[in-house]
Amino acid sequence: MNSTPTPTHCPYCALQCGMNLSPTPDGGVEVLERADFPVNRGALCGKGRTAPAVLSSRVRLTSPLVREGGALVPAGWDEALDRIAGALGRIRAEHGADALGVFGGGGLTNEKAYALGKFARVALGTSQIDYNGRFCMSSAAAAGTRAFGLDRGLPFPLEDIPKSGCVILVGSNLAETMPPSLRFLTELRENGGTLIVVDPRRTKTAEQADLHLAPRPGTDLALALGLLHLVVAEGRTDEAYIAERTTGWEDARAAAMAHWPEYVERITGVPVPQLREAVRMFCDPETAMVLTARGPEQQSKGTDTVGAWINLCLATGRAGRPHSGYGCLTGQGNGQGGREHGQKADQLPGYRKLDDPAARRHVAEVWGVDPDSLPGPGRSAYELLDALGTDIRALLLMGSNPVVSAPRAAHVEERIGSLDFLAVCDVVLSETAELADVVLPVTQWAEETGTTTNLEGRVLLRRQAVTPPEGVRSDLEVMHELAARLGVEKGFPTDPEEVFEELRRASAGGPADYSGITYRRLAKENGVFWPCPAPRPADPVPGPHSGDGPPTVTPRGPARGDGVREGGVPQGGTREAGVATAGNREGGVAADGNRKGETRETAVAQAANREGGVEEAHPGTPRLFLDRFATPDGRARFVPVAHRAAAEEPDDEYPVLLTTGRVVAQYQSGAQTRRVDELNAAAPGPFVELHPRLAARLGAAEGDPVAVVSRRGRAVAPARITRAIRPDTVFMPFHWPGEGRANTLTNPALDPTSRMPEFKACAVRVEAVPPA
Ligand code: SF4
Question: Domain count of the chain?
């Protein structure tokens, strides 16, 4: 391999921190600082710093495993692939294509996510594909699409956060999930802005807030409604904005006015004076934003909960204005890109809807298949897992570990165990892989090249920095080989750039348009924000613009596939592409250090464009919605929402609420990070966080084992006693399997729109565990 450091990105969370990987004499790599990437400017958390340990882990899989006599034993690649293809073909012949399930992950690169969706629908012919991102941010995606016509986690760069006057951070513990991003909040406060954190726990992030609101888990929908009620009552709405840029206000207003502050206090436990203070802090400055994460999203009413926070942003004229608005802090490494390219049950590449005839025609043409041969939408992630062993007889799983990460995990484990056939691709023997009939050892981040899209919608190039160990192959090779064995000889290339080129074509004209992005361009720039359409002859090439910052263009409306976009504007029309709006100019004049950084990036982009010719001319879209939203009429949509209880409320038998989350030293199901000694030392196992009053009732001391029992099962872990949590609530991190598995307890009650399970609130009882 190259002996010079390779600039690339972390394999873990959606921040996708930049890092350099430098070769070491023993054939490995070490992480060096990479200060030029604006998201983290060289800073990394412990997970990113230690990520190379997983490459050379002693438990790394380097040979396929097949089940023989009840045990997994090493086998050759041909035998393993033959077994998978044989089983999938046999089950399809006996039970039909929908008896085959495919389960992907939000950590897969864009290329893999794209290829997996195509593999399911073309090579297998099944509709039964979904992925673990359904458990992550699907409620925010649904609410964003409903309100703005388009979901891109953050519709603005992270660097806009410190320029805002106030940030409400809802259900996000950035200090533990994305530590380098904390600097944006620190800079916000240094600039005179204020921070409000909404979280049932006084987390490390909440400790930095000017105001911490600690609602009961599952009640932040009511909290947002209470704030909106006060905004109206105190005359803080932006009537001109509401009239010009939104629809549906009257119904949303009426819904909010039914939520009196005193009623909201009774539901949430947040005192009315704190509600008033939050409204003052949010409405006083000219700019303000709301950022949500898993707290409001992982609820059986997650879409409406996020919708309530969006309504607050719309009523106060925040969305679609510089340094203001609503954004979702996506969690997984490619949580954003993972939901755009077709591994979601209801979507095709380019963030197109699977049930849209024009979208089907477009993608089918790129794939060289008959549109009518494409299956329709399938089951959502939990529903798919719940159907294993019944309708779905075989499962191919890539980049996920549902035995630890799915809700009602013991049931999911039992369903997986009842399959006729399970194939898993992974880098280590995860708890789900342990149940497989065939396990394929695959390459991981630094051993392969591919793109991800971070939480800002910034498409990034992850570069190969080391040679993979002998015996492993890439997920793309796996799909190529399996497709060929299933009789599909073409259409599944193994070269990631070739896959990306096809993805570009498939996404062209869709909401998430990547057609103007190339590997060559990504290699020269610090990412490109989608939408980034390839110019067509009729398109004006954007710019020159104000010169103060990157051009900010309005995303095209959803494609109708007939040359006319919704809203009646012809493709290539001047209103759509590269139009520097008044809002953009406003966004471009706020000169400061960050802005200068953006100018440098834009200059690089423009230089790349000149080199690349018109094909690469679009600069990308760091900021969305500044002149119009992506709805047919260009206006954001208020949606009236009302408080409703969590699917499971405390009662005499289960009197306490459980909420789940993360710790800084572990990532997701821990399949990778639990294999890193330094991370294990920092976070060796699960725990139950509980208030001293609850601990006293149990007679539990710090470190004593306590049992948490829900209607779905029982988990035991040491007590961690703290006043940072409400007395009516306990918290467990979900990174571990076994006795302390938090997801044994969680409730798979699904949001009716997003199909997101309710990880954040379920009823439990807590018991002291007698000494053994
Ligand atoms: Fe950055 Fe996230 Fe990686 Fe930590 S895990 S280094 S915050 S990308």
Answer: 5
Give the 3-state secondary structure of 13-63: CCCCCEEEEEECCCCCEEEECCCCCCCCCCCCCHHHHCCHHHHCCCCECCC
The ipTM of this complex is 0.99
Q: How far is CA 500 from CA 150, 340, 341, 425, in A?
A: 22, 13, 11, 21
Could you tell me if the CB of 332 is within 6 A of ligand 1? no
Residue 402: band (very low, low, confident or very high) from pLDDT cuts 50, 70, 90: very high
The answer to whether 566 and 605 are in contact (CB under 8 A) is no
Rounded distance, CA 27 to CA 22, Å? 10
Q: What is the dihedral sign for C-alpha 687, 13, 54, 403?
A: positive
Residues 37 and 92 in one domain: no
Residues 82 and 106 in one domain: yes
Retrieve residue 444's tokens: 């991981």
398 and 103 in contact (C-beta within 8 Å)? Answer: yes
Q: Encode pLDDT of 710-762 as tens digits.
A: 999 999 999 999 999 999 999 999 999 999 999 999 999 999 999 999 999 99
Mutation to probe ligand 1, out of 176, 178, 182, 679 (largest number of atoms < 8 A from CB): 178
**Residue 96 is part of which domain span?**
65-136+335-445+473-494
Mutate to test the pocket of ligand 1, among 8, 15, 183, 455 (most ligand atoms within 8 A of CB): 15
Q: How confident is the model at residue 25 (pLDDT cuts 50, 70, 90)?
A: confident
Q: Which of 468, 389, 396 is nearest to 432 (CA)?
A: 396
